[in-house]
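Need a sequence for this fold. Nothing fancy.
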C-alpha cells in the first residue's frame, strides 16, 4: 500500500512522535489508533519462535507458546549451506506470519572470539566471511515471507561477562576485518529490516550512542535502510542515542525516556528533524509488515519438525572415524549416557524455545526396531555418576559390538548471561569415556554442545560425531547419521583447540570488568593457529564423510588481475567412494608478498556440492579485489596491494588440495610523507622514492669507498642502513642537504599522486 509517511508524521504531535521511539511493552511497538498506525509484535529467535504470552522477559525465564525448535547457529553454520539456511529462514517466516509476529530477533552474527563465550551456541563462526554469507541467506529467507529480521548484536559483543558495561578495546583494523564484515555483507546483500545494537561500549563509547557505528558506517557507508533497535535495556543516554542513530528503545521505559525526548526537542537540545527521521524509519518497517500480512498462513508443526530434523542432518560434523561408523543393523549396540534419552538440543537464555516435540536418539532407535540397549551411565543435567552406573556401563560395553556414548554440556554449563570458565566436559563423562574405551575398541562419541570442548580421549575412541545443539529433531538426525541412512556433510565453522590455553584470546578474556583488550587483533581463530603454527585438535573447515572426494583441474580465468576485475576460479570435484555425499569446497586466499601482518590464509569462497558415487562436478567461484584486501588505517579503507597471491582450494583449512598463483596490480597509492624519521628501507622499497634514493646512495657509497682506501673498516651493513632514519645521517650529510632531499622526495610523492 502506498502512503506518504512524511505527511503522516506532520499530523503527529510531539508526544506521539517521541512515544513511537519506545516499545509499548516488552515485545510490542507503540501504535497510534487515531492515525491508523498499528502496533507490531517482535519475538526472540534466531532458531525458533519464542512468542511469550502473559508476563514477559528477555532471558527465557517465563514460558512461551509452543513452537518448533530448529538447530542453533553453531550447528547451521556448520552446514556451509546457504540454500539450507535460506530455506530454514523461509519456514521461520511462515511461522511468524501464522503467529502474527512482525519481527524475528536474529540472526546473531557476532564472531566467536573465545570458545568460552556463553552465547557461542547462538553465533555462527570465528570467520567473518562464512558468517556474512550464512547470515545473509537467513535474512533473505525470513524476509521473503514479509517478516522483518533484527541482525544482532552490533557490534563486538563477544562475551557475556560484564556485557552491560564492558568496553571492547579493539583496533580499527581488527574492527573492520574481523568484527564488522559479517554485518556489512548482510546489510549490503540482504538489507535486514532492523539492526540491534549491543550493550557494550566500543573503545569507550556505548554502542547505543555510537554515531560512528550507527550512522557513519551502518547508514552512510553501507546503505542500511531500516531502523536500529536497542538490545533490551541497552539504552544509556536516550537523547545521545537518537542523535547517534538509535531509533527504537526496547522495552519501553514507562514514559521516562519519552519525556526526555520531548524536553530535549522543546529546549533545543534535539532537532525535531532528527526525531522525524527516526519516526519515519520506524513507520517504514511497521507498515512493511502490515502491508504483507498473510493471516491465512498455517503453522504446520509436524511438517516443520520434519524440516528441523532434515536440517540438523545436514549440519552434523563427523570429526573422527576409524571405521566404527556407520553402524550396522546386525550389530549389538549399546547407547550410554543420559543424552541418548534426554538430548540437549538448544541453549539457554533469550533464544530458548518451548517445544514438546523433542525426539531422542534412543526413542528413534526403538521406533526403527534397532538392536540397541540403553545404559544411563551419567546424568545429562549434572556432573554426576555413581560407581554402580559406571560398572553397569562397562559391563554392557564389554558384551557389545559397538558402543555409542552420548556426551555433552549440561544446560547449566553454557547460556546467555554468563561465560564458561573452562572448555572441559563434566569430569564424570571424561572418566566414563576413557574407561569404556579401554574395554571396547568400537566406541563412538556423539557430542551435544554449543561450542568447542576439550577431548582428552579423542585418540582412544573410534569415532566422534559433533551434533552441536541440533534442535528438536536431533535424535532422528543422530540415528540417520550413525546408521548410514545419511552421510555427514557438515564442516567445522570454528577451530577446536587442544586446550583452552591455546586459544588466541586466552590472556585477554574476559577483561577486568570495565575493559577487555582484543590483544590478538586480527588473529582470531584459524588465523592465529596458522600464523603461530599451533597444533589444533580439529581445524576450521574440518569434517569427514563416509565417502571420499578428489580434486583436480583447478583453473583461473586469468593469472593477472587489477582493480575492478572479477576472477573466476574453477575446480573439478569427484566422489571416488561408494556412497553419495556432500563435499564443501573451500577457497582461501594468501598474500605472498605482504608488507603488513596478515593471516596466512583467509576464507573467501565456499560451495557445497552433492555427488553420487563416481560423479564429478565443476565448482566455480568468483573473487574481486576486496577479497584480497586488508583494511589500511592510513586511508581508512580497504586496500589490495600489488603483488603475488595464492589461491588455495581444499577440504579444510589444514587440508589444501590445489593451489594457483595470481599477480595483482593496483593503481591505488597509499599516502607517503617523508620526514627526518623516515627510514632508508622505507624510501628504498617505495616505488615513488626508490629511484631518487639510488642516486643519493651512490654519492654516499663513493664517500664510503674513499674512507676504505684510508684504512677505514666497514661496520655498517645494508641491513643496518635500511633501519636508519634520515636523521641518522646528520653526522655525514649536512642537515640542510637532508632537508632539501626531503623536499624533493615529497615533491615526487605529490606528483605521483596526482
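Here you go.
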Amino acid at each position: 500500500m502506498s502512503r506518504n509517511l512524511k505527511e503522516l508524521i506532520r499530523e503527529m504531535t510531539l508526544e506521539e512522535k517521541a512515544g513511537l521511539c519506545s516499545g509499548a511493552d516488552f515485545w510490542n511497538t507503540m501504535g497510534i489508533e487515531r492515525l491508523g498506525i498499528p502496533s507490531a509484535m517482535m519475538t526472540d529467535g534466531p532458531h525458533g519462535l519464542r512468542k511469550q504470552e502473559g508476563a514477559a522477559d528477555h532471558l527465557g525465564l517465563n514460558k512461551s507458546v509452543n513452537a518448533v525448535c530448529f538447530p542453533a547457529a553453531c550447528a547451521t553454520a556448520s552446514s556451509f549451506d546457504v540454500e539450507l539456511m535460506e530455506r530454514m529462514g523461509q519456514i521461520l517466516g511462515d511461522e511468524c506470519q501464522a503467529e502474527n509476529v512482525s519481527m524475528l530477533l536474529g540472526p546473531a552474527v557476532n564472531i566467536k572470539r573465545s570458545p568460552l563465550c556463553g552465547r557461542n551456541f547462538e553465533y555462527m563462526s570465528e570467520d567473518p566471511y562464512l558468517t556474512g554469507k550464512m547470515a545473509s541467506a537467513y535474512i533473505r529467507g525470513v524476509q521473503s515471507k514479509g517478516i522483518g529480521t533484527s541482525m544482532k548484536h552490533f557490534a563486538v559483543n563477544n562475551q557475556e561477562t560484564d556485557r552491560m558495561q564492558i568496553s571492547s578495546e579493539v583496533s580499527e583494523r581488527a574492527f573492520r576485518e574481523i568484527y564488522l564484515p559479517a554485518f556489512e555483507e548482510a546489510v549490503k546483500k540482504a538489507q535486514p529490516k532492523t539492526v540491534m545494537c549491543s550493550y557494550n561500549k566500543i573503545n569507550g563509547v556505548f554502542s547505543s550512542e555510537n554515531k560512528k557505528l550507527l550512522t557513519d558506517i551502518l547508514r552512510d557507508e553501507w546503505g542500511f535502510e531500516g531502523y536500529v533497535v536497542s538490545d533490551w535495556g541497552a539504552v544509556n543516554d536516550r537523547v545521545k542515542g537518537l542523535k547517534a542513530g538509535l531509533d527504537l528503545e526496547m522495552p519501553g521505559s514507562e514514559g521516562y525516556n519519552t519525556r526526555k525526548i520531548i524536553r530535549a526537542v522543546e529546549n533545543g537540545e534535539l532537532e525535531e528533524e532528527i526525531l522525524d527521521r527516526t519516526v519515519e524509519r520506524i513507520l517504514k518497517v511497521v507498515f512493511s509488515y502490515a502491508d504483507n500480512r498473510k493471516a491465512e498462513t498455517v503453522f504446520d508443526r509436524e511438517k516443520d519438525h520434519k524440516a528441523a530434523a532434515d536440517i540438523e542432518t545436514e549440519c552434523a560434523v563427523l570429526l573422527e572415524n576409524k571405521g566404527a561408523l556407520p553402524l550396522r543393523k546386525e550389530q549389538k549396540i549399546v547407547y550410554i549416557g543420559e543424552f541418548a534419552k534426554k538430548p540437549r538440543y538448544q541453549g539457554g537464555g533469550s533464544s530458548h524455545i518451548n517445544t514438546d516435540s523433542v525426539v531422542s536418539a534412543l526413542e528413534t532407535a526403538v521406533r526403527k526396531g534397532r538392536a540397541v540397549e540403553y545404559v544411563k551411565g551419567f546424568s545429562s543435567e549434572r556432573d554426576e555418576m555413581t560407581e554402580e552406573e559406571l560398572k553397569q556401563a562397562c559391563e554392557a560395553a564389554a558384551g557389545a559390538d559397538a558402543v555409542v556414548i552420548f556426551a555433552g554440556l549440561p544446560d547449566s554449563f553454557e547460556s546467555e548471561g554468563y561465560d564458561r570458565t573452562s572448555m572441559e566436559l563434566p569430569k564424570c563423562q571424561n572418566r566414563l569415556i576413557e574407561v569404556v574405551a579401554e574395554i571396547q575398541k568400537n566406541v563412538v562419541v556423539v557430542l551435544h554442545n554449543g561450542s568447542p570442548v576439550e577431548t582428552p580421549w579423542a585418540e582412544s575412541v573410534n569415532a566422534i560425531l559433533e551434533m552441536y545443539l541440533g534442535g528438536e529433531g536431533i535424535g532422528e538426525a543422530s540415528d540417520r547419521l550413525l546408521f548410514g541412512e545419511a552421510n555427514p556433510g557438515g564442516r567445522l565453522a570454528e577451530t577446536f583447540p587442544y586446550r583452552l590455553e591455546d586459544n588466541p584470546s586466552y590472556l585477554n578474556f574476559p577483561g577486568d570488568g570495565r575493559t577487555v583488550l582484543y590483544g590478538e587483533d586480527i588473529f582470531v581463530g584459524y588465523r592465529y593457529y596458522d600464523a603461530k603454527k599451533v597444533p589444533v585438535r580439529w581445524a576450521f573447515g574440518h569434517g569427514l564423510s563416509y565417502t571420499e572426494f578428489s580434486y583436480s583441474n583447478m583453473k583461473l580465468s586469468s593469472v593477472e588481475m587489477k582493480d575492478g576485475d572479477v576472477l573466476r576460479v574453477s575446480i573439478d570435484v569427484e566422489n571416488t567412494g561408494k556412497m553419495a555425499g556432500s563435499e564443501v569446497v573451500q577457497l582461501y586466499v594468501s598474500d605472498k608478498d605482504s608488507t603488513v601482518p596478515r593471516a596466512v590464509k583467509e576464507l573467501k569462497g565456499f560451495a557445497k556440492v552433492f555427488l553420487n558415487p563416481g560423479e564429478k562436478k565443476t565448482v566455480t567461484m568468483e573473487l574481486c579485489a576486496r577479497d584480497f584486501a586488508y583494511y589500511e588505517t592510513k586511508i581508512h579503507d580497504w586496500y589490495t596491494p600489488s603483488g603475488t597471491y595464492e589461491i588455495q582450494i581444499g577440504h579444510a583449512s589444514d587440508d589444501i588440495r590445489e593451489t594457483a598463483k595470481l599477480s595483482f596490480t593496483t593503481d591505488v597509492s597509499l599516502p607517503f610523507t617523508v620526514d627526518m624519521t623516515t627510514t632508508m628501507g622505507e624510501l628504498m622499497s617505495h616505488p615513488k622514492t626508490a629511484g631518487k634514493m639510488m642516486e643519493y646512495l651512490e654519492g654516499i657509497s663513493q664517500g664510503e669507498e674513499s674512507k676504505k682506501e684510508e684504512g677505514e673498516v666497514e661496520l655498517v651493513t645494508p641491513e643496518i642502513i635500511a633501519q636508519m632514519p634520515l636523521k641518522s645521517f646528520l653526522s655525514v650529510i649536512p642537515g640542510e642537504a637532508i632537508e632539501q632531499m626531503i623536499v624533493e622526495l615529497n615533491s615526487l610523492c605529490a606528483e605521483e599522486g596526482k
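For context: The CA atoms of residues 1 and 510 lie 49 Å apart.
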